[in-house]
Amino acid sequence: MTVVLARHGESEYSARSLCNGDPSVPVALTERGRDEARQLGLALRDTPIGLCVTSALLRTRETADEALAGRDVPRLVVPALNDPLVGRFEGATVEEFGAWAHVSGSAALPGPGGESRLDVVGRYARGFRFLLERSEDTVLAVCHSLPIAYALEARDGRAPAQSMPMVPHATAYPFTRDELDAATSVLERWVAEPTW
Fold first, then answer.
1. What pLDDT is recorded for position 6?
2. Beta-carbon neighbour count of residue 156 at 10 Å?
3. Where are the alpha helices (DSSP H) in 105-193?
4. pTM to 2 decimals?
5. 3-state secondary structure string, 78-124?
6. DSSP reduced 3-state for 49
């Protein structure tokens, strides 16, 4: 089994470095983002994809639409892979959220309606476990920078950090079943015993 993780194309908010984790706020792709999604599709054109999973946010669904145009690939929405609910930082800059995150513990809430990063990591681990339970040979998961960054770091044995690097838009990151299983285990162990 292979799970291909890919961030969505550039969105109206990511182009302006703004936060959006609320699926009820429709943040679409930019024209550049649509082109990035089509390039992702070209990169995956020879990959037999048995299932495409997206988060519940519009930008991931639009990326999958563009990347898989003309292909008959079953689709499934998995909200466990959503971007974090950022509470009072919804619509604020990534820098503002980052400044709060840098000085806040993993269990801290970013205001009403927000999620702690401890809860977010646990949610991503559950989302990855869901992917690992699928029977398809290849699953494409179009999601967001943060779950991919956590997975990439965890694949190398590193636990979540207070500040995670952004991953490029619409770039494919393939994981074998064993790699994603091991990475998910790293995340699960950290959730059980967080270090910050």
1. 98
2. 9
3. 117-132, 145-155, 177-192
4. 0.97
5. CHHHCCCCCHHHCCCEHHHHHHHHHHCCCCCCCCCCCCCHHHHHHHH
6. coil
